[in-house]
Amino acid sequence: MRPLHPTVRNWSILAGLGVVSLFASCQPDPEATSLFNDVGMSFQPCNEAEIRFRNERYNLMPALKVCGSNNVAHFAWNPSGTHLYFDLTLTGNLLDASQAHKPLSTLPLDQPTGAPAWITDTRLAVPIAPDPTLRGSPERIALYDTEQRVLSVHPLPGLLEVTELQRGATASEIYFTALDPQGRRGVYLFDVDESTFAPALAWLHDEVGTFSLTPSADAVVIGSGGTVTLYSMQGEVRGSWPGVRGTVHPGGTWMALEKEGQEVSIFYQRSWENQTRREREINQQRAERMAARYPDWFPKSVRLPTLEFINLNSGHRGELYQVFGTRFQWYPREDFYGSFLLWGYEGKQLNRNIQLGNFALFLGAIERRVKLPEVRLLDRDGRRLDEPDPDNSEQGRAEP
Distance between CA 219 and CA 103 in Å, rounded? Predict the structure, then answer.
């Protein structure tokens, strides 16, 4: 692995765009409101200044307007890192980050339905819904050339809920997951040249939940039943960890592991660095009283979508303590940069966005077992080696 540079480099390739507002949680007073207003007061309109402050604090750059209607489910950067594809409700969109004004265009796709993949720098593969004009038509893979603006559509008869598209070792290979007619999810290989598909990874017998592929690292990562397992392309097991989804860095040394973290109340999502122990206890008691007023079936908590990083050579592990998100992918243009869908910061849910940043500082701290406020070090079994003190309001952020 190349040495990790300790300095986080800022660079500007992104501009804001807008599109369904999610709302950030605040702290309601349950004593003064009705049940109806309790729910409404659990959320308040997006606070742009707060999000910008958190982005700058953790050195992450948003691709979309911080308070836009960013109802993004899937995204992918092209291999050169100049174009970003992302889906919104019923549409596929392309941001050209190589131009000064960052133009945004809507692609001629029929209702994208799952995770896409770039197979070349200008050719994009996206799973799309059946043709609405043909009753009983199958789901499809759309191939779109962003340079020639040419679209081709390829049916996948017999398969449902196609997603997790991944480029194979060559541009003619697209791996993906789908449900078979018996409702079992497996991995398939689509041949771009022949426009045919067949089951792939014959050695894989477990049902698939999540799937990622890194051919340069000879790595296949399968998430199933709360466990993430790393395989070689030939099926050799290299390790398994509790989690939801994993993605191996192209260099093969690091894996990003997505998992369910600490449980927090939906009525009180704290920003713990700004509170004393007494303040936090008061707010927790308010949240407990508020939750008690709702029926048992009403969801009262959420688990923080946590990002962990594992050095596959040394076994050293660490998780981000104050940054939360999903759908992590390694950014191809800059080594050890990463991109993910933002859930929130410091235990508090904020407006969704596609974030991009340099993770070299975090990875270096994990490998060298150096404590940072942003990173919680773990042992090989995932147990915490350090415990950042949420009561220490004077605790500062390490300077790069």
Answer: 35
In 3-state terms the chain splits into helix, strand, coil percentages (rounded to 5) of 10, 40, 50
Q: What is the pLDDT of residue 387?
A: 58
Place of tokens 């196609």: 162
Which residues are CB-contacts of 392 (< 8 A; sequence separation ≥ 6)? none
Band (21; pLDDT cuts 50, 70, 90): very low
Total domains in the fold of the chain = 1
Q: How many CB atoms lie within 10 A of CB 207?
A: 13
Note whether residue 101 is domain-resident: no
- Which tokens belong to 91? 């549409």
Looking at residue 212, its pLDDT comes to 98
Residues sharing a CB contact under 8 Å with residue 323, sequence separation 6 or more, in sequence order: 58, 60, 307, 345, 374
Please check whether residue 33 lies inside any domain of the structure.
Answer: yes
- Give me the chain's average pLDDT, please: 85
Residue 40 in domain: yes
The whole-number average pLDDT for the span 241-258 is 98
Q: Whole domain around residue 378: which residue ranges?
A: 27-72+249-400
Half-sphere exposure of residue 144: CA atoms within 13 angstroms, side-chain side: 22
DSSP annotation of 244: S
Confidence check: pLDDT of 390 > 80 = no
pLDDT (0 to 100) of residue 285: 83
SS (H, E, C) 80-135: CCCEEEEEECCEEEEEECCCCCCCEEEECCCCECCCCEECCCCEEEEEECCCCCCC
CA distances for 136 relative to 38, 130, 383, angstroms: 45, 8, 50
Place of tokens 């004593």: 31
Is residue 367 a part of any domain in this protein?
yes
Closest CA to 49 of 31, 67, 23, 29: 67
